Design the sequence.
């Protein structure tokens, strides 16, 4: 399948203040090859790809395209060569239609002709899409199709896909792989960026592995095991969290009864008839593709949106009408998905961010006045306990890396010793070592008798640490199953909207 | 009121009152559609008004004066753009500064112009059509800026809906990150949109001092820049509704002037409150339908953009 | 080429330096402005910055002008910190003057100790009433408070004009648009004998200290700061936004109303159609110039008060238009906003590396 080289990047070096993002990296893709770029968050994958797409100029190094040295000074230069890219965070415009979005991406007018071509390509590759729909009405999977069709319309020679499956259900992933393999068989090269080892072993012909901005290996993923690839990617042995088998369930601490919240705006998903009990000592996982009601569920439980009647029950009392503060005082803490701006105030110090949610449960004030000393102590406790890399409690939250800030906001809640903890995407964008630490902390909390609810898009994570699992789809929650009784495929069905597995099985 | 020529006269005054609002609001609409909130409309209008009036007083050329008025607004907009787009200053604070500065600067420059007389912009009678009864004086006997304001609305509407540049403008206002990722020059697009807004505000001011008044009075915009800002919200960022809203407000302004004439016996100060009170009522009414406002508001409005990656 | 590079942490040093850089740049620009106007630069600067405060009377006048500016700007800065853009303090100031003044005129012939406190209460109530309208509209229908509070300023000015032309006009005043002069019992006593310095100066100091403690040490102040920079985080922490909006607006309304009453019961001594030389708007500049920090605002208020006095003195001695003051104030704010870029970015000379 793979032919001679399509593109070769040599000695690419790119430095940011304080970080060497790419250090003399090289790699090479053949015609019709599906090539994986594998690495942890922060390994330099994104930087390398942005150089290849003309979004960043390297400090040094060269790019050769079909044997010719080229200077990729802008994305339009890259596009004119035949390089197309599907971004991890889609470059879409919510208020524009599908056809307008594609016109933006291709630098052509939004004409009827373009509309026809979209329908052609979408039929040919099995990517159903209506050109005149407004983007804000589309699901995540449909949005990704816009990006893929936009790329395909340019008849690319090289298609770059940045973490394309992180937002898809397992079934959607399979559909995507069919499309990609078909493209490769037609001679299109694909650069596939991911940290999911099984996918790479299934799909890719070759893999370049980056770690800390450097090449560490080039391998044939079909000949490697997931363990050997992981070892190359991570470079050290990280002990993954091990599920403590079949905990003895305690009393229920949190219960949702027919929780229904009707959304007032198009951006938010309505929640419908959600029933759930979380017991002392267990971790319950909620899977689902982003945008299916995860944020709304967390807001409803934490009290950021109020519900009515007897929908939310906490430790013996109905708390639907309670404020965030009262719920926290009663022992319910929450960590929202968005770290900067929601879980933490970017411009404020870690001390102040410790006060942000801590003052409800910890004594951080003296005689009604905020005590800087106590806040500092609270922040230091989190920093020490969770190994947060920073310049100390006075550092601004925005100055921390994503993973360290995540450790801080999760740690901040855990150290408040909540009886119920709800946490969304606990390890999103976090490196493997930090992820393992967060997982262990969550397990420790449950072991000490807390009820833990984890909302995550990362199925592997949920299967690794939860005791029971279900999935959110379009604002409805599926039945819950003991995690040991189901596999990823079955959870995938739940994520796709199947309410209970018995019917299908 | 039964005399048709009286109603035509009143309609004509409505047109003159609405025209500056059309210009200022349509300029701000384009600026906001690109994701920039420029609260300095009032200041840009005042500078446009004083610079055009100064020009026509010194050189006597009305066309040149209109260009100078536009340029005055654009220089102010450029200042705003430099601070907010290049230096990342807060758009709200900078807009307020622009108004305060524009008020002071225009008063300073206009010191010598107080009491200076000017005959007003010449009326252009469209051949044949202007001879028609009623319709002729109503639609075809105006100065150039009135015609321009009528043409501007469909032009902006077509630009936004049909042209590629309009598409890029809307896209930048929707998500500057996406536009940047696709390789569009976000800052450059926003500079153009801001400058267009400045030119329109400058013309709106020029209309006030050269056609509406026509003379220079300190602070003569009397809040029209702020009303134009409210009009953009009222119009849910759609050009057609700007025209409707501007004429509605024009009518209210005229009601205040002619109130006594048509038998409403209320002190003039209370009648003068009408446009401001109406603005508040209109804002409330439009805000009641939050879904509609949110669907149409440019998503990136007011947010600073700095290309870091 | 010059380009901006984001700092990892905002620079504290630049936060303090920026206002001074802005002041220097404004002076430099003023130099050229005077040159262009054909005014002798040395004399102009002396008339502006030295003459007004060269004697104790001048210093007291500085206090008279600074007091309302500081009071309003400190209150505004609390709201601005919380992301509540009340720019209608001018209207709230006028309403305070109207309501307090109306009480004084009602007790026109009464000489009693309760008159002045009653006027103060009325002034506070008037300012709060005017600020409550944008607060109500923002919290119920989410109407933009910038536009509503500003529109209400025009309404307030027209209301004042109506009142002094009509119901509150001095019956023996030959139809001049002004009220009777207030009774002595309705006038603020002077704090320093022989000057016009009134109790407002002490109130300004008190409000500054109070706001400082509130902002830096209390839960309410923390909530205001969080709401301004990260509204979702405020929600996450359980700070109700509606409450913060109400507090910000009502507090500013109360303070601006009181300042308005002080102005009519102090230096003016009656109601007329021009009771404010734009204090409500200038206070916005003062708030920004003072870094939205009460102590900074205090000093910024003194600087800005000097610009008013300087404008008046330059008008008298050099026959310069009063509008120069507005130009100076606008420029100062511009330069400050430009200098602020140094807090979060450093300026790097050389090739731009970011595409």
Sequence:
């Amino acid at each position: 399948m793979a032919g001679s080289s399509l593109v070769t990047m040599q000695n690419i070096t790119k430095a940011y203040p304080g970080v060497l993002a790419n250090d003399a990296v090289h790699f090479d893709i053949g015609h019709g090859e599906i090539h994986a770029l594998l690495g942890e968050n922060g390994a330099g994958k994104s930087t390398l790809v942005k150089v290849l797409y003309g979004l960043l100029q390297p400090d040094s190094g060269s790019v050769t395209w079909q044997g010719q040295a080229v200077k990729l000074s802008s994305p339009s230069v890259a596009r004119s060569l035949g390089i197309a890219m599907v971004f991890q965070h889609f470059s879409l415009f919510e208020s524009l239609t599908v056809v307008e979005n594609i016109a933006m991406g291709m630098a052509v007018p939004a004409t009827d002709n373009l509309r026809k071509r979209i329908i052609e390509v979408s039929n040919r590759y099995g990517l159903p899409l209506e050109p005149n729909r407004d983007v804000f009405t589309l699901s995540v999977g449909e949005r990704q199709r816009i990006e893929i069709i936009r790329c395909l319309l340019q008849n690319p020679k090289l298609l770059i896909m940045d973490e394309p499956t992180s937002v898809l259900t397992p079934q959607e992933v399979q559909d995507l792989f069919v499309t990609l393999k078909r493209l490769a068989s037609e001679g299109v090269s694909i650069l596939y960026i991911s940290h999911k080892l099984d996918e790479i072993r299934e799909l890719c012909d070759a893999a370049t592995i980056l770690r800390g901005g450097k090449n560490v290996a080039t391998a044939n993923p079909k000949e490697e095991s997931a363990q050997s690839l992981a070892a190359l990617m991570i470079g050290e042995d990280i002990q993954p969290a091990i599920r403590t088998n079949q905990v003895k369930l305690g009393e229920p601490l949190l219960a949702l009864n027919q929780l229904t919240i009707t959304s007032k705006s198009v951006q938010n998903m309505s929640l419908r008839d959600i029933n759930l009990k979380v017991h002392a000592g267990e971790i319950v996982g909620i899977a689902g593709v982003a945008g299916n009601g995860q944020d709304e569920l967390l807001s409803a439980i934490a009290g950021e949106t109020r519900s009515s009647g007897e929908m939310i029950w906490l430790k013996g009392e109905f708390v639907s009408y309670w404020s965030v503060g009262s719920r926290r005082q009663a022992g319910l803490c929450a960590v929202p998905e968005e770290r900067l701006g929601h879980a933490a105030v970017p411009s404020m110090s870690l001390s102040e961010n410790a006060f942000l949610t801590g003052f409800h449960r910890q004594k951080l004030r003296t005689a009604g006045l905020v005590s800087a000393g106590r806040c500092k102590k609270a922040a230091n406790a989190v920093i020490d306990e969770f190994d947060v890399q920073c310049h100390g409690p006075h550092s601004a939250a925005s100055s921390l890396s994503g993973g360290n800030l995540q450790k801080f906001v999760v740690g901040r809640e855990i150290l408040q010793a909540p009886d119920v903890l709800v946490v969304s995407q606990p390890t999103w964008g976090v490196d493997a070592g930090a992820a393992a630490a967060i997982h262990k902390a969550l397990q420790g909390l449950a072991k000490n008798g807390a009820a833990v609810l984890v909302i995550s898009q990362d199925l592997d994570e949920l299967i690794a640490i939860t005791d029971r699992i279900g999935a959110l789809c379009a604002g409805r929650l599926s039945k819950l199953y003991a995690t040991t009784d189901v596999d990823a495929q079955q959870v995938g069905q739940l994520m796709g909207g199947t309410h209970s597995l018995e019917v299908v099985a | 009121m039964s005399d048709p020529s009286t109603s035509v006269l009143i309609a004509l005054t409505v047109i003159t009152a609405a025209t500056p609002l059309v210009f200022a609001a349509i300029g701000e609409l384009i600026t906001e559609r690109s994701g920039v909130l420029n609260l300095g409309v009032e200041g840009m209008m005042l500078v446009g008004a004083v610079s055009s009036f100064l020009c026509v007083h010194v050189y006597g050329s009305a066309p040149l004066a209109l260009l100078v008025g536009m340029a005055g607004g654009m220089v102010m907009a450029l200042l705003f753009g430099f601070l907010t787009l290049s230096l990342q200053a807060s758009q709200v604070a900078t807009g307020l500064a622009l108004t305060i500065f524009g008020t002071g600067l225009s008063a300073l420059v206009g010191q010598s112009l107080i009491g200076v007389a000017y005959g007003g912009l010449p009326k252009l009678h469209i051949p044949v059509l202007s001879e028609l009864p009623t319709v002729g004086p109503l639609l075809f006997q105006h100065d150039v800026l009135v015609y321009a304001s009528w043409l501007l609305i469909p032009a902006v509407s077509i630009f936004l809906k049909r042209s590629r540049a309009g598409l890029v403008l809307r896209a930048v206002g929707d998500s500057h990150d996406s536009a940047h990722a696709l390789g569009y020059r976000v800052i450059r697009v926003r500079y153009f949109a801001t400058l267009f807004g400045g030119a329109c505000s400058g013309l709106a001011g020029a209309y006030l001092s050269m056609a509406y008044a026509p003379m220079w009075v300190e602070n003569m915009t009397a809040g029209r820049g702020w009303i134009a800002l409210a009009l953009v919200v009222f119009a849910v960022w759609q050009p057609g509704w700007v025209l409707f809203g501007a004429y509605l407000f024009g009518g209210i302004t005229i009601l205040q002037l002619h109130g006594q004439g048509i038998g409403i016996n209320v002190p003039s100060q209370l009648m003068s409150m009408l446009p401001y009170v109406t603005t508040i009522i209109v804002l409330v009414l439009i805000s009641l339908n939050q879904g509609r406002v949110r669907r149409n508001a440019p998503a990136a409005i007011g947010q600073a953009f700095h290309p870091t990656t | 080429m010059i380009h901006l590079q984001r700092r990892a942490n905002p620079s504290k040093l630049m936060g303090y330096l920026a206002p001074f850089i802005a002041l220097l740049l404004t002076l430099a620009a003023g130099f050229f402005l005077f040159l262009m106007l054909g005014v002798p630069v040395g004399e102009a600067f002396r008339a502006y910055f030295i003459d007004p405060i060269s004697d104790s009377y001048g210093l007291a006048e500085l206090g008279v002008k600074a007091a309302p500016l500081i009071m309003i700007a400190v209150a505004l800065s609390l709201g601005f910190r919380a992301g509540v853009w009340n720019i209608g303090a001018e209207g709230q100031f006028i309403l305070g003057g109207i309501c307090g003044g109306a009480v004084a005129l009602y007790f026109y012939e009464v000489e009693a100790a309760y008159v002045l406190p009653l006027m103060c209460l009325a002034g506070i109530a008037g300012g709060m009433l005017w600020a409550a309208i944008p607060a109500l509209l923002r919290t119920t229908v989410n109407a933009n408070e910038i536009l509503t509070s500003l529109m209400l300023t025009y309404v307030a000015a027209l209301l004042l004009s109506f009142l002094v032309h009509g119901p509150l006009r001095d019956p023996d005043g030959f139809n001049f648009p002004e009220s009777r002069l207030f009774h002595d019992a309705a006038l603020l006593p002077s704090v320093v004998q022989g000057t016009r310095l009134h109790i407002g100066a002490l109130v300004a100091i008190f409000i500054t200290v109070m706001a400082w403690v509130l902002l830096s040490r209390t839960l309410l102040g923390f909530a205001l700061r969080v709401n301004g920079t990260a509204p979702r985080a405020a929600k996450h922490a359980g700070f109700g936004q509606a409450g913060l909006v109400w507090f910000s607006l009502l507090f500013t309304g109360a303070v601006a109303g009181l300042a308005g009453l002080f102005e009519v019961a102090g230096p003016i001594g009656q109601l007329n159609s021009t009771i404010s030389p734009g204090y409500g708007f200038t206070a916005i500049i003062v708030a920004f110039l003072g870094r939205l920090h009460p102590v900074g605002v205090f000093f910024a208020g003194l600087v800005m008060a000097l610009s008013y006095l300087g404008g008046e003195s330059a008008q008298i001695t050099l026959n310069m238009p009063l509008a120069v003051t507005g130009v100076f104030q606008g420029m100062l704010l511009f330069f400050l906003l430009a200098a602020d870029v140094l807090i979060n970015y450093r300026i790097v000379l050389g090739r731009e590396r970011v595409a």
Summary: Chain C has a mean pLDDT of 90. The longest strand of chain C covers residues 2-6. The CA atoms of residues 134 and 145 of chain C lie 5 Å apart.
